[in-house]
Each structure stands twice: as structure tokens, then as C-alpha cells.
């Protein structure tokens, strides 16, 4: 998928996979159709379609960067990534997609498995703290504050290819609803 993604768009990968699957189903192709690894092509097509769905969701995300930080401070299922080569630069993505886009093993790895685990543990620690504070502020309202303090954890992709990924912890003020 990485090799295809470096030279083809997700839409092109989907069309190519669809064409290969039609070739495999075409009886007029004879022995050529038997050479098409249908299971592998279907796996590539499924992955490309899933990534395309995520890309469309991200492209439709019109929240401000500040709102993404606020929303993500209490979201256990997604992480924030600041990648200057992506549009938008600050994206909220799922944890599995994070590990697919930014692998921690292999030739394309820009961080180690230990770094990835430390990033996710930092996210979990600040998430727990934010949820505890948010719940306590919502119940007590003793300080008459209409905001709760939290931290957003962001994975930062340096502009220079090959440089190690970094993590950033940012202060966030979450509005507390009465």
C-alpha cells in the first residue's frame, strides 16, 4: 500500500483494484485472470477505500484548530497530528490510522515502538486527568468558572523528511456546560 500510495492517489488505487477484480472475474481472460491474486487485491482495495473515507471525513472537518484541541482533550478514540505536509495541517485521526500513516517499524519509521507507546500513554494520562477535572467541575461549580483546564497531546511531524516525530502537550480550556 505504501508503494502504491507514493505514486497513485487513493481514487486511482481503488479504480486499479476494481479493474483487476473485473479482470479476475472475466472468463474471456483465460489463464491471465488466474494470475490475479484476488484476496490481496481485495485487501488493498478495502484499505484504500477505508483511507479514502477517512480522507473525506478530514476534508469535511471545518472545525478551527482550537476547537479540535478542545474536542480531542476528552476523546479517547482519536489523536491529534500536526503535519505541515497535510491539509489541514492539524488533523484528528484514529489510533490505528496513526500507526498506519506513521509506522514505528520498518524503513519508513520516524519513531520507535517505545516512542509510540509513550505518546499514547501521555495521551491517556492527560485524557484521564481532563475527564476527572471536567466531571468534578461539572458537579461542583464551586469556583464559578465556566471553563475547565485540560491538556491536548499532539504528534508533531517535522517538515524535514526523516526527522523523528515529536510530541507536544498544549494547554486547553474546555467550556463547562451548566
Strand content: 15-25%
pLDDT below 50 for ≥5 consecutive residues: which ranges? none
Order of helices and strands: HHHHHEEHHEE
Please state the structural category.
alpha+beta
Share of helix, binned: 40-55%
Tell me the Rg in angstroms.
21 Å
Shape: elongated
Overall mean pLDDT score?
A: 78
* Overall number of strands: 4
Core attributes:
alpha+beta, four-stranded mixed beta sheet, 178 residues, 4 strands, 50% helix, elongated
Structure notes:
- By secondary structure, the protein is of the alpha+beta class.
- It has two domains: 2-59; 65-175, no CATH class.
- It contains seven helices and four strands; from the N terminus they run H-H-H-H-H-E-E-H-H-E-E.
- A four-stranded mixed beta sheet has the order 2-1-3-4, sandwiched between helices.
Summarize the model shown.
This protein is α+β, with helices and mostly antiparallel strands. It has helices at 2-5, 10-25, 31-34, 38-59, 65-72, 95-101, 113-140; strands spanning 78-82, 90-94, 147-156, 166-175. A four-stranded mixed sheet has the order 2-1-3-4, with helices on both faces.
Write the layout of secondary structure elements.
Layout: H1 2-5, H2 10-25, H3 31-34, H4 38-59, H5 65-72, E1 78-82, E2 90-94, H6 95-101, H7 113-140, E3 147-156, E4 166-175
Parallel strand pairs: 1-3
Antiparallel strand pairs: 1-2, 3-4
Amino acid at each position: 500500500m505504501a508503494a502504491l500510495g507514493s505514486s497513485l492517489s487513493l481514487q486511482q488505487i481503488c479504480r486499479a483494484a476494481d479493474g483487476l477484480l473485473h479482470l479476475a472475474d472475466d472468463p474471456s481472460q483465460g489463464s491471465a485472470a488466474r494470475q490475479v491474486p484476488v484476496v490481496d487485491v481485495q485487501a488493498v482495495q478495502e484499505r484504500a477505500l477505508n483511507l479514502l473515507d477517512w480522507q473525506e471525513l478530514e476534508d469535511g472537518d471545518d472545525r478551527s484548530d482550537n476547537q479540535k484541541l478542545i474536542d480531542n482533550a476528552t476523546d479517547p478514540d482519536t489523536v491529534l497530528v500536526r503535519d505541515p505536509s497535510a491539509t489541514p495541517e492539524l488533523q484528528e485521526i484514529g489510533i490505528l490510522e496513526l500507526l498506519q500513516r506513521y509506522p514505528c517499524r520498518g524503513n519508513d519509521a520516524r519513531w520507535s515502538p517505545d516512542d509510540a507507546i509513550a505518546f499514547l500513554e501521555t495521551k491517556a494520562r492527560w485524557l484521564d486527568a481532563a475527564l476527572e477535572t471536567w466531571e468534578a467541575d461539572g458537579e461542583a461549580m464551586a469556583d464559578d468558572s465556566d471553563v475547565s483546564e485540560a491538556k491536548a497531546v499532539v504528534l508533531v511531524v517535522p517538515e524535514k523528511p526523516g526527522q523523528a516525530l515529536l510530541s507536544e502537550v498544549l494547554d486547553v480550556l474546555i467550556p463547562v456546560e451548566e
